Amino acid sequence: MKKYNFPNNFWWGSAASGPQTEGRIAGDGKGENIWDYWYTKEPEKFFNEVGPDKTSQVYTKYKEDIQLMKETGHNSFRTSIQWSRLIPKGTGEINQTAVTFYREYFQGLRENGIEPFVNLYHFDMPLALQEKGGWLNRETVDAYANYAKTCFELFGDIVKIWFTHNEPIVPVEGGYLYQFHFPNHINLKEAIQVGYHENIASAKAIQAYHQLNQSGEIGIILNLTPSYPKDNANPEDVKAAKIADAFFNRSFLDPAVKGEFPEDLVTIIKELNLLPEIVPGDLTLIKDNTVDLLGINYYQPRRIKAKETPLVNVVSPMPEDFFDNYEMPGRKMNPYRGWEIYEKGIYDILTNTRENYGNIKCFISENGMGVEGEERFVNEFGIIEDDYRIKFVKDHLKYVHQAIEEGANCVGYHMWTCMDNWSWTNAYKNRYGFISVDLDKEGARTIKKSGHWFKQVADDHGFD
Ligand code: BG6
C-alpha cells in the first residue's frame, strides 16, 4: 500500500471544455458563440491573435485522444457540450451532426473505461442569445433550462454525471467587472443580475434532471479561492476577507449546496440598492434544487486586507470597494504563470466543505499548473519533462489525502487539463496539459512526463 493511498474507486482524470478543445469545422452546423464573435471583431485581444478556431481539434481527433487518456491513467474525464454546437441559435433547431458527435464521443469514453463527466456551460453563450442580453436577460434562463433538458434527453443514457456550470463567477467577473470576457462591461448591478440568473438557471437544470429520474448525479463546478486575511488578529482584515469570500465563493456555493444566498452578501447588495430582479418562486426553486455533488476548481488563494480608506464609490461600486487584495511577501509563486502556489488551500477548502457544507460529496474538478514557453523543457526524445507539474500535483494530492483521512467526502481528482488547449484570450500562452499539442504539426500529441507519472499514480491508487 502506498503512503498516500487513495480509495480504489477514486476518480482520476482531467478536465477540459468543448469551446477550448473541439475546434470549428466548416459546414458542421455549429452556431456562433460570444468567443467566435469577439475574435472576429477584436483578434488583437487574443494572445498571438489565436482564436477559437485553432483549438486542439478534439472534434476530429477524439478517438485518438481517448486512447491517450487511457495511457495517462484516466478513469474519468470532463468536457462540456457547446451550447451553440448543439442548438446553433441557443433556442430552436437542434444540430443533428452535433448529436451524433457528442453521442459517439461520450460512448467512446465509456467503452474505454472512462466515465464521461459532462458540463453544460463553460463560458460559451450562443451569440443569438447574447444579442438579446445573454445572462442579463431572464429569457436566457429559460433557454438554458430547455437546453439542459434537451441534453439530458439526448445523452442521459450514456452520461451519468452532469454539471450545470463551470466557474459561474467567471462570466460575472470577466464579462461585467474586469473586462476579460465579452461583453466587457464594468457594472456591478449587471454583474449581480448575471450571477443571480446563472444561479436560477442552475437550479432549473437540477430540477429538470431530477424530474427525469435518469439515475445519475448533477452538480456544479466552482472555482473556490480561500480568502486569507493579512492579519488574523485584525478584525478589519478578517471582515474584509469574509466579504471577498461572500462575493467570489459563497455567492454560488451557498445557493448550490445550502439552497440560499449568503445573508451578509444580500445585506451589502441591499445597502447598495443593487438587488437583482427576482421572480416570485425563485427562492423556493433555489431551496428545493441543490446539487448532488460539488466540483471544486482550485488554483490559488486570495489574500485580503482591510481597505486603508474605506469608501464605496456610489456611482460605480465594485467589490474592491470593500477590501484590498494583498500581495503577501514571500508567497510562493508559479514562475511560469504568475499565480501563487499554496497547496494547503486545497485542504482548507475540503475542510470547509466538510465542516460547513454538510460534507457534501465533492471532488477536485480542476487543479493544475500553467506554464508559458513550455517547449523549452522538451528533451532529446521530444518529451516535455515537466517535473514542476509532477511536484505541483503531488503536493496538492498530499493535502487532498490528508483532508480525506480527516473525513472529507472527496471522491476524485481531475487535473486541468488533458491536452494543452486554447484558453480564451490567453489562447495557447499557458500550457496545462498532461499531453502536449503541436499546433505547427496539425495538433500532433505527445504525452508529457507528468502524464506517464499520473498513470502510475492512478494504477497504484496513490504514491509514496
Ligand atoms: C480555469 C478555467 O479556471 O483556468 C479554464 O476553467 C482555463 O477554462 C484555465 O483555461 C486556465 O486559465 P489561463 O488563463 O491560465 O489560461
Give structural notes.
- This protein is α/β, with parallel strands linked by helices and 464 residues long.
- The protein has a single domain (4-463), classed as Glycosidases (TIM Barrel, Alpha-Beta Barrel), CATH 3.20.20.80.
- Helix content is 40%, strand content 15%.
- The strands form five sheets. The chain has an eight-stranded parallel β-barrel with strand order 2-3-4-5-6-8-11-13, surrounded by five helices. Strands 7-9-10 form a three-stranded mixed beta sheet, with helices on one face. A two-stranded antiparallel sheet has the order 1-17.
- It is globular.
- It starts with a strand and ends with a strand.
List the topology elements.
Elements: E1 4-5, E2 11-15, H1 18-21, H2 34-41, H3 58-71, E3 76-80, H4 83-86, H5 96-111, E4 115-119, H6 127-130, H7 138-155, E5 161-166, H8 169-176, H9 188-212, E6 217-223, E7 227-229, H10 235-258, H11 263-271, H12 282-288, E8 293-297, E9 302-305, E10 324-325, H13 344-356, E11 362-366, E12 371-372, H14 387-405, E13 410-416, E14 430-431, E15 435-438, E16 444-447, H15 449-460, E17 462-463
Parallel strand pairs: 2-3, 2-13, 3-4, 4-5, 5-6, 6-8, 7-9, 8-11, 11-13
Antiparallel strand pairs: 1-17, 9-10, 12-14, 15-16
Helix pairs in contact: 3-5, 7-9, 8-9, 9-10, 9-12, 13-14
Pfam families: Glyco_hydro_1 (PF00232)
GO molecular function: beta-glucosidase activity
Keywords: Glycosidase, Hydrolase
